[in-house]
Amino acid sequence: MDAALGRVGASSDPFAAIVCSTRMPVVITNPREADNPIAFVNDAFCNLTGYSREESIGRNCRFLQGPETEPAKVALMRAAARSGKPLDLEVRNYRKDGTPFWNRLHMVPLHDASGDLIYFFASQLDVTGELDRLQFLERHNADLLTEKDARHQADAANAEKSRFLAVASHDIRQPLQSLVLLQGILARTIQGDPAERLVLRLGQTLESMSSMLNSLLDLNQVEAGAVRTNITEFSINDILDRLKDGFVYDAQAKGVLLRVVPCSLFVKSDRRLLEQMIRNLLANAIKYSPEGKVLVGCRRNGTALSLEVWDTGIGIPENAVETIFREYHQLDTQEGRSTRGLGLGLSIVHRFGNLLGHRIRVRSEVGKGSVFAIELLQAADSAPSASPVVRQFKGRGSPPLAEASSILLIEDDLETGEILQNLLGDEGYRVVLAHNGLEALELIEVEGMRPDIFVTDSKHETSRSGPEIATRLQGHLSAEIPVIILSGDASTHAAHGTGSQNAVRLTKPVKLRELTAAIQRSLSVSRSSRAASAPPKKGTDLSLNEATIFVIDDNRDVIDAMGSVIESAGGVVQAYASSEAFCAVYRPGRNSCLLLDAYLPGMSGLALLQKLREDGDVVPVIMITGASDVAMAVQAMKAGASDFIEKPVGGSDLIASLRNALTHMHSSEDLADRREKAASLVADLTVRQREIMAMVLAGHPSKNIAVDLGISQRTVENHRASIMRKTNTKSLPALARLALAANWDEQYVT
Ligand SMILES: Cc1cc2nc3c(=O)[nH]c(=O)nc-3n(C[C@H](O)[C@H](O)[C@H](O)COP(=O)(O)O)c2cc1C
Asked: Are residues 686 and 560 part of one domain?
């Protein structure tokens, strides 16, 4: 056999020929000789290992092993060789030139007819590529698993951090709320330096503490992916007004002149997040302006609107512009160091901007100042008018609402509850304190308390009994009762979670000034709405909050009076002294209404109304006419006025009329309904009554009608009384309104 093996290459045996010529490396060893030497190798083995046949034959196969050959595998091969057992494994081997390769070894013992082991047959396959790929995949897999594990851990840590922050924020806000209120009391009581100065500093410290807390929470929410955007269309003025009120004291205290240019355009964004963005920019502008001016205004650019905050502050060095939006970054300046903060303001602006798709632009020059711009989208049919107006209104003429108003305060924190009760009491309110929702319910159900306003800690909204109490309170209290929620959680979840339409949410800690302003505003809106003759439709907005009211009247006193009433009901007033001044800047938009004097010099109110309708503008117009000027009123209604009111204008009539016009503006269903009812009332009148009604509405006095119809004046007056009774109208304007709604025409007069 050994001799045969030596001759195998020349053999005519087909099996031997296959072994020789196959591309599979093959080795045959002789276990009957010492150390099991190689007796045969084929060409493929020589090609794989680089060793010639002469260099291989007579040696044990271990010469293929090297430094990385696994000892455990060598042991397996030894055991197999000794015991004459087959074996399959992958082992690290080396070629003659020293390059390593993975050898997939297949060892089989060969026995003779009597069962004695005579040879070992083996094939070696180079599987380096395959194993390298496998090893790579295994490593990659392991990396992925580690990464996944790390991500899991990070997510868990993040969730834990968010939970901690939410809980901590509520718990920190509570004592902070008490401190803010106590500081307010101190500021009022203490007089003279240095006490006043110290109390002021205490106030500033508390303010920076609350703003840091809010920043941390905002950032936490963004990082946790918990910020849900709520995109609506609203007037940018809503935000600007509030911010102006909020920052005016800070600016004054720093000697900075703050100017907020009003803008009645509507934008599409998330109201709360956008307000926070502008708030942060404004706070920075004031913080980094040792003196000088800060200006906030809007610039229109096609469908876009650039809201810009300008300051004449210290400016930002060119190399720092990139980094200012990073977390915890503060300009290394005297201002940055002296004012406490976390350097999160701009990072929040940046992150909210990304969330909302609002680009932020910065221009700055050291020593001259900076401009930060937020690029917004205008609402589809925004009403533009950033042009000059006769005057803007702000909170004048509000009646002393504190007087005799009663507040039901629900606060479970004893200290905060008592401080608030005392402070609001000092402001002139009658405050009843309930320590929880059930106590409040008892006050209402058992003791019959009917508060004018309801101030509550937000916990009662979310506690187990919260919804039940809320439902029961709603059942007992008028739906119009305003609610102020003092929230200990600034999270966006909480902000969106407010169920009630009439609820105002303030985040703790709230300053007494802010709270009383919110109470006054809510009370004022609620009173106007109660005073309004027409009860508003269920589910409609009770205030004029979203509406721009253009007042066009040449009488300053009328403008002043109406402006105050509208503002106190939450409307935004833009006043013009003439039709021409109005036309120069007006463009059609949404959620606006005109209060138009019928008798303006130059283009009259009626002419302006006709022009608007000719231009296809359906903006609601309420015509202001002289007393008993029914003819003009009818003419105005025919020209497309929504309503008319007579001078002198009463506050509640005005708000009712505005609400009616704004609410019914787009509701064709309502209009059809009103028309149908009016037509059936008119149809119920007798022919004579309709005849007299036509003459009354044409402006004829009863005496003339009597003469024209050849009846007594008394009979005419009797007819007039029955007309009013049958049509259920209490005044001539109301009758005219009804006639117009019924499509009144001379056809009724036969
Ligand atoms: C037929 C046969 C083929 C073998 N082929 C290889 C081989 O390709 N590579 C290798 O590392 N060892 C191979 N071996 C194993 C070694 O020859 C030897 O048995 C092993 O190193 C264990 O013995 P040792 O501990 O005395 O070195 C083979 C063994 C036999 C019987």
From this structure: yes
pLDDT confidence tier of residue 488, bands split at 50, 70 and 90: low
Ligand 1 atom nearest 61 alpha carbon = 17
pLDDT at 8: 53
CB-based contacts of 325-332 (< 8 A; 24+ apart in sequence): 325/349, 325/350, 325/360, 327/219, 331/288
Does 188 contact ligand 1 (Cβ within 6 A)?
no
Max CA distance (Å), the chain: 154
pLDDT at 725 over 90: no
Highest mean pLDDT among 19-28, 398-407, 420-429, 511-520: 19-28
Shared-domain flag, residues 557 and 690: yes
Q: Write out pLDDT tens, residues 306-349.
A: 999 998 888 888 777 777 777 655 555 555 444 445 567 888 88
Return the higher-pLDDT residue of 353 and 169. Answer: 353
Say if ligand 1 is within 6 A of residue 29 CB: yes
pLDDT tens readout for residues 463-480: 544 445 655 665 666 556
> Mean pLDDT, the chain, as a whole number?
77
Q: Which of 36, 38, 62 to mutate to test ligand 1, by most ligand atoms within 8 A of the CB atom?
A: 62
Ligand 1 contact via 62 beta carbon (within 6 Å):
yes
Which residue has a Cα nearest atom 5 of ligand 1?
A: 61
- 393 φ, ψ to 5°? -105, 150
CB of 107 closer than 6 angstroms to any ligand 1 atom: yes
Please write down the long-range contacts of 112-120, taking CB distance under 8 Å and 24 or more positions apart.
Answer: 117/31, 117/32, 117/84, 118/1, 118/30, 118/31, 118/32, 119/1, 119/28, 119/29, 119/30, 119/31, 119/39, 120/28, 120/29, 120/30, 120/31, 120/36, 120/81
Domain encompassing residue 352 = 231-378
Decide: 368 in ligand 1 pocket, CB within 6 A: no
Nearest atom in ligand 1 to the alpha carbon of residue 65 is: 11
Domain tally for the chain?
4
Q: Is 699 contained in some domain?
A: yes
Same domain? For 527 and 569 the reply is no
CB 362 within 8 A of CB 371: yes
Q: Is 710 left (phi over 0), alpha (psi -120 to 50) or beta?
A: left
48 lines ligand 1 (CB under 6 A): no
> Where does the pLDDT of residue 527 fall: very low under 50, low under 70, confident under 90, or very high at 90 and above?
low
CATH number of the domain within which 714 lies: 3.40.50.2300
For a pLDDT cut of 70, what percent of the chain falls above it?
Answer: 79
49 in contact with ligand 1, CB cutoff 6 A:
no
Cα of 109 to ligand 1 centre, how many Å?
A: 13
488 and 346 in a common domain:
no
Q: Whose CA is nearest to atom 3 of ligand 1?
A: 122
**Has residue 536 been placed in a domain?**
no
| Contact call for residues 660 and 643 (beta carbons, < 8 A) | yes
The 10s digit of each residue's pLDDT in 171-226 is 777 777 778 888 877 877 787 777 887 887 787 777 777 777 777 777 777 776 76
Q: Say yes or no: CB of residue 65 within 6 Å of ligand 1.
A: yes
Q: Is the CB of 38 under 6 A from ligand 1?
A: no
Among protein residues, the one whose CA lies closest to atom 21 of ligand 1: 62
Backbone dihedral region of 714: left (phi > 0), alpha (psi from -120 to 50 degrees) or beta? alpha
